[in-house]
Protein: NAD-reducing hydrogenase HoxS subunit delta
Amino acid sequence: MSDSAKITLATAWLDGCSGCHMSFLDLDQRLIELAAKVDIVYSPIVDTKELPVDVDVGILEGAVSTEENLQIARMFRERCKFLISLGDCAVSGNVPSMRNTFDLDDVFDHAFVETVQAQPGRPTESLPTLLRTVVPIHHVVNVDLFVQGCPPSADTIWYVLTELIAGRTPDPTQITRFGA
Ligand code: SF4
Structure:
């Protein structure tokens, strides 16, 4: 922890639309209050390159659909004391898992050939290594808290973070009362 008065927070998005992170930003003026109590040490919304080894709270958005997603999920589990699966993609697979019923070759063809007008064709490099099936985060690592919603509302995220800041474990039965 870089400031002993604060909890450290790390976030990442895996296979998601970034909407759950946008919902986090929807905390609006509450972000100022949060900044006094939370140190964001790794996240797409801050300029950090390395996940520290001992983070208080980790938040993962999105499902696990590539080898890279898998490595990030494992790294978060290893380095974060409390891991949150944020949003329906992370919790259940949601939209990204819709490709699970299709052959991977058909998925690539649909993305790079059938629906492309300018220079259709599958790239020969820089393609992510897709897993055969998209899975929720808890299928690959243990998760401490599930926060449903597509995306979860800012009020929900606020409830979860303020409980953790207060040293309490958020009550899963309370999470749904804020809506998505
Ligand atoms: Fe986007 Fe919804 Fe998935 Fe969040 S749960 S990453 S908002 S599709």
